[in-house]
């Protein structure tokens, strides 16, 4: 290959690469507000970020579920301990979620540690 052909190929490759990789502005990543355990499965984190937090997606980063938002000022959820849940919550996140939605008009609910051996049901609300 002569130098003129090489130069033309290099210019073409540079054109293709620069036109196909446009940066995405405004995307922000922050820790999930509803994930309550060590993150090992990015697909689960992704699903929860999308469905629970209204994020664009999510993935596990160093054991933490991180959600990606279209805008840096995406609204945060606020959590409050459930007013209607009684007892522990260790393995009952689905029930906690259902109760928060149905009885407390929350966006979602999840069990979180509230001490060394204690877990409580927390409800998540949009804009408190």
UniProtKB/TrEMBL annotation:
Q: Does the keyword Disulfide bond apply?
A: yes
| Knottins-like domain sequence ranges | 27-72, 77-127
Pfam families on file: Gamma-thionin (PF00304)
Answer whether the UniProt record assigns the keyword Acetylation to this protein. Answer: no
Which parts pass through the membrane?
none
Per UniProt, the keywords (alphabetical) are: Disulfide bond, Signal
**What protein does this entry describe?**
Knottins-like domain-containing protein
The organism named in the record is Papaver nudicaule (Iceland poppy)
